[in-house]
């Protein structure tokens, strides 16, 4: 394996690990989130907790999308590298 291929796979693996960590973090944030709740005014503290959870999850979402994009782009680089290598072998 060439030096570039080792670096390429290392970068890809690091990005995938970062993405997995972000997914795990988001899942721990949202584990106490209710999908639908019906509350009257006596349950304002629960409504405030749910709003706080939703705000934290919404802060993580843009970071998650960037990480997904980076992993997708790096995956295309890996595939492109091997396609380019196959074409060069037939020259």
Layout of helices and strands:
Blueprint: H1 3-30, H2 44-89
Helix pairs in contact: 1-2
Describe the protein's architecture and organization:
The chain is built from two helices and no strands. Helix 1 packs antiparallel against helix 2. The chain has helices at 3-30, 44-89. It has 91 residues and is mainly alpha-helical. It has one domain (3-89). The relative contact order is 0.15.
Briefly characterize the structure.
The protein is mainly alpha-helical and 91 residues long. It has two helices and no strands.
Describe the structure using short key phrases.
mainly alpha, 2 helices, single chain, about 0% strand, about 90 residues
Uncertain segments of ≥5 residues (pLDDT<50)? none
Spell out the helices and strands N to C: HH
Q: Whole-number average pLDDT?
A: 87
Q: How many distinct beta strands?
A: 0
Ends distance: 20 Å
Task: Count every helix, treating DSSP H or I runs of 4 or more residues as helices.
Answer: 2
Please state the CA-atom Rg, rounded to the nearest Å.
21 Å
What is the total domain count? Answer: 1
Helix content: over 70%
Largest sheet: none
Approximate shape: rod-shaped
- Tell me the strand percentage band: under 5%
Structural class category: mainly alpha
């Amino acid at each position: 394996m060439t030096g570039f291929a080792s670096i390429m796979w290392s970068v890809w693996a690091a990005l995938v690990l970062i993405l997995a960590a972000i997914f795990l973090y988001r899942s721990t944030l949202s584990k106490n989130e209710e999908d639908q709740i019906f509350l009257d005014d006596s349950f304002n503290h629960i409504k405030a907790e749910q709003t706080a959870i939703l705000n934290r999850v919404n802060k993580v979402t843009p970071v998650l999308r960037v990480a997904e994009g980076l992993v997708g782009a790096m995956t295309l680089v890996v595939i492109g590298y091997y396609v380019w290598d196959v074409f060069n072998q037939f020259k």
